[in-house]
From TrEMBL:
Positions of modified residues (4-aspartylphosphate): D55
Protein name: Response regulator
Entries under InterPro entries matching the protein: Bact_response_regulator, CheY-like_superfamily, Sig_transdc_resp-reg_receiver
Domain Response regulatory: 6-123
Parts forming coiled coils: 161-188
Record-linked Gene3D superfamilies: 3.40.50.2300
SMART domains: REC (SM00448)
The organism's taxonomic lineage, starting at the top: Bacteria, Bacillati, Actinomycetota, Actinomycetes, Kitasatosporales
Species: Streptomyces lannensis
Statement: the UniProt record of this protein carries the keyword Coiled coil: yes
PROSITE patterns on file: RESPONSE_REGULATORY (PS50110)
Keywords recorded for this protein, A-Z: Coiled coil, Phosphoprotein
Amino acid sequence: MVQKAKILLVDDRPENLLALEAILSALDQTLVRASSGEEALKALLTDDFAVILLDVQMPGMDGFETAAHIKRRERTRDIPIIFLTAINHGPHHTFRGYAAGAVDYISKPFDPWVLRAKVSVFVELYMKNCQLREQAALLRLQLEGGGKSAVGESKEPAGLLAELSARLAAVEEQAEALSKQLDDDSADAAAVATAAHLERKLTGLRRALDALEPGTGSGAPSVPSQS
């Protein structure tokens, strides 16, 4: 069973949160509410999120301040942030949003279809990254365990490599399809950059597997970092 991604919705107005939930419910992911910047930061201490929808105008800690805290934390700095705002003070205001670390800046009222499409891209990227981390963790376990399966049974090296290669190929195929979709849809530069980062990590993991093939060198290769 594939685990659902979590999407953090941050807005001080309950009716806005309700509207966001209605728009994003079709994605069939886990939607988490936060009614303030402080509440959002607490949620980020314990849970991993695919994307954050963050209202700019909030009492106390506003969206810009909240984003600054998120980007300072190592655990959360890479989570995409989409700013939502009911006001528009021109290019300077928008620039401040991007400077705070947002991948997008959307003015209200926004097109529900557009918002849902943007969020779905980051959810897909998050899921592919999760798959990649799982494959890398499996590779580490297999290398450290001397080629034993999850239930403790020994596997022939060729069979182990074939299994790992097949699992990685499935992720590579999905990542390639996603990249083509981003190109076709003229997606945001941030989404394209995130997809490219995912492809680079996949390439590193593929090279590590290839290095294990007989006749390609000695010793166990290093598994690429997942940062």
